Amino acid sequence: MYSRYISITLLVLIHFFILAGCTSAAKTSPPAASETLFPTETSNLKPSGTPVLPPVETLTQSVTQNAPDPLLALPAEDEASARLSLPDGFAIRIFAQNLQGKPRFMAFGPDNALYISLTNGGEIMRLPDLNQDGLADSNEVVISGLNQPHGLEWQGDWLYVAENDRIERFRYSSESGLFDQRELVTDNIPGGGGHYTRTLHFGPDGKLYVSVGSSCNVCVESDPRRAAILRFNPDGSIPADNPYVDNADTRMHAVWAWGLRNSVDFLWTPTGELWANMNGRDNLIDNNGLPDSLPPEVMVFPIRPGRFYGWPYCFNLLLGGNSISAPQVLDNQSNLRLPEGLDCNQAVPALFTDLAHSAPLGMSLGQDGNFPSEYQNDLFIAYHGSWNIENPESIRDCKVERIVIENGLPVRNEVFVNGWRAPGSNCGDASAYGRPADVIFGADGAMYISDDAGGRVYRVISVQR
Fold first, then answer.
1. What's the whole-number mean pLDDT along residues 155-160?
2. Residue 402 in contact with residue 447, Cβ under 8 Å?
3. Quick one: which of 48, 226, 63 has its CA closest to 144?
4. 153 forms bridges with which residues in the sheet?
5. What pLDDT score does 390 carry?
6. Per DSSP, what are the bridge partners of residue 461?
């Protein structure tokens, strides 16, 4: 045990001297940005003095070789731990706070730091934790001047950023700790509209997938790239095997699946299945004349190339469970009629739904490293919660939900983290403590939750031995 503390102490001292040595580098101007594809002002690529660390696996090994205790660092109790509830055996702390500009989606970089998009601020922020104490050392804006950045994903040294009307990528230099090159990947993405966030992920096929929300609550889109998931080659060109690549409307060439009102996030399962969530329409009245109950929110859609997912004409009637329900026509609710040759039986039904207006945003599958084994294959979704529920007894919580996966299918759900909403109010009210926006896992298995209303990132770990 004594040798364990010697190892940790040496590690912290090494980090201190690296940090001191990089101070002068932090004050220099970053290299000129690339003009190959998309000229940019160098001022939008901000320098940072964060030293480059070895891979997190190396750091973990150096600390744990003499330390069989698997528990991660847990900071002192704070206002989040006092307010938010979790299952027994888990603890939550504020990892970073005072994040301005609507912090949304997150990704860990090659320097092991957490990166987060500030959608309203047009910035990307870096949140390093050099001493691995479970608290961000600083809030560093490293890229600015973006158009409503949202989805983030790393490919090698390149950070891909989904903006409102384009995908850009930024090269990270491990030598300088700076972003020194900027390139446009594609602007074949419709901008503006009611749902302005864009999310991107690379699939197991190496292709770039981008979700684009609808321009409205319920309408027939004039641009087929809206309310859809698009698919590109990594350089932004159209893959030859896209389902609509021969369509006369060239805007259809990028479309992979459509009829998805607002799939804020999506992922691939271990078996290679593409799953997406979807935010359903507002202001729908049920057959009893009551608001707030329809349509059930889609937590898991199985995404297939070229398939139709219902919106704006159809919705899944079944609430919860992994049974399959035929979609239903929204005829008297939206006054929209299906185009000739299309009917709701052609719409792909959901694998799992939940209460209307739950507002699913970021989603991740659990992983090993910290959480107990029974949690490691389940799906975790940030429920942004309701903003316009009319019946106070029907208000939806802003929370993180666990959806249990068995035999590759979602079978039931339960609350994992809750407590952001003030009693008697909607999650969108000023009285709310915050609203979860994204959920990801670090290399050590800890969960990170962004909060776009409270301006925080939380860290959740298992404290079970």
1. 97
2. no
3. 48
4. 160
5. 76
6. 91
CB atoms within 10 A of CB 309: 29
Compute the mean pLDDT over every residue in the chain, rounded to the nearest whole number.
85
Whole-prediction pTM value? 0.86
Distance spanning both ends of the chain, measured CA to CA: 17
428: its two tokens: 């969108």
**Does residue 69 contact residue 370 with C-beta atoms inside 8 Å?**
no
At residue 285, does pLDDT exceed 90?
Answer: no
Q: Which of 137, 136, 4 is nearest to 70 (CA)?
A: 4
Instruction: For residue 53, report the phi and psi dihedrals to the nearest 5 degrees.
Output: -105, 160
Cβ–Cβ under 8 Å, residues 403 and 382: no
One-letter amino acid identity for 337? R
CATH architecture, domain defined by 2-462: 6 Propeller (2.120)
Q: Rounded to whole angstroms, how far apart are CA atoms 275 and 430?
A: 33
Residue 265 amino acid letter:
D
Retrieve residue 138's tokens: 């600083």
Q: How far apart are CA 277 and CA 232, in angstroms?
A: 20
Q: How far is CA 130 from CA 11, 15, 113, 140, 221, in A?
A: 10, 7, 8, 13, 47
Q: How many CA atoms lie within 13 Å of 73's alpha carbon, on the beta-carbon side?
A: 14
Measured distance CA(383)–CA(450) in Å, rounded: 11
**Which H/E stretch holds residue 168?**
strand 167-172
pLDDT tens, position by position, 172-188: 999 999 999 999 999 99
Cβ proximity of 132 and 148 under 8 Å: no
pLDDT exceeds 70 at position 37: no
Buried b / exposed e over 334-364, threshold 16 CB at 10 Å, is: beeebeeeeebeebbbbbbbbbbbbbbbbbb
Give Cα separations from 80 to 93, 124, 155, 202, 419 (angstroms). 6, 24, 33, 33, 9
User: What amino acid occupies position 255?
Assistant: V
**Per-residue CA distances from 181 to 46, 141, 143, 176 (Å):** 11, 16, 11, 12
Q: Are 30 and 109 in contact (CB under 8 A)?
A: no
Instruction: Please state which of the ranges 140-154, 226-240, 307-321, 445-459 shows the lowest mean pLDDT.
Output: 307-321
Token code pair at residue 88: 């027994």
Do the beta carbons of residue 91 and residue 425 sit within 8 Å? no
Q: pLDDT category, 60, cuts 50, 70, 90?
A: very low
pLDDT at position 256 over 50: yes
* Rg for the chain, CA atoms, rounded: 22
